[in-house]
Amino acid sequence: MDSTNKQINRRDFINLTAGGIAATALIAPTMAFANEQTKIKAIAFDAFPIFDPRPVFKLVNDLFPDKGPALTNTWRTTQFEYTWLYTSATQYADFWKVTEDALIFAAKKNGIDLTAAHRKQLMDSYLYLNAWPDVLPVLESLKQKGIRLALLSNFTTEMLNSCIKTSKLDTYFEAVLSVDKVKRFKPSPTAYQMGINAFKLKKQEIAFAAFAGWDAAGARWFGYPTYWVNRQEAPLEELGVRPDGMGRDLVGLVDFVSR
In the annotation, is 46 catalytic? Predict the structure, then answer.
């Protein structure tokens, strides 16, 4: 797993904790749709293009100022390593448990005394994520265009619904699709298939909005027209596939699905 570790262990979320990235300029699409005549009728969003995770990692730094960045980095790396290991071994534990287990491991690895109170505080912070500032106007614009919207995430259903409520986005998503339904984490094709099953559309009619480069690659492999919301300004993954479009925020997504 050396190449995987290299891709997810690049201080992505530490950069977010340090203050975030200005979400402004749109990067031009890097690749045309396989069928340019196909009209996008729906969008499936990963959770993190919608919900801002920075408060979780600010809390890590507040609780453990000397080891916050190290704890964050190990926690995030282990969190996704565990999801991929579970799926590759045809095993399953939901994302809440994976996240908690990864936190416990990360604390041990970094020599941190993680009390039960600290663990609960950090885990509960995942339930109350607010939307990024650009999200609401973009969702409103998409809704006015008649684009159907859903969340398709590794998050548990409880985590997704709680963050939707916190962000006051209750009226925007017609489907809340957790991989709990299929017990396979992304980038398993079984996870991405949930979008087709929910919308009852062809995959070419469903755009996928990804936060992580590996998720953008997974969705593109599956066959979705894919937009990478590259808030971290990360380099493209070297996986032999590129997103159809990308930007530093959600704003460019409106034009992307309107072409």
Answer: yes
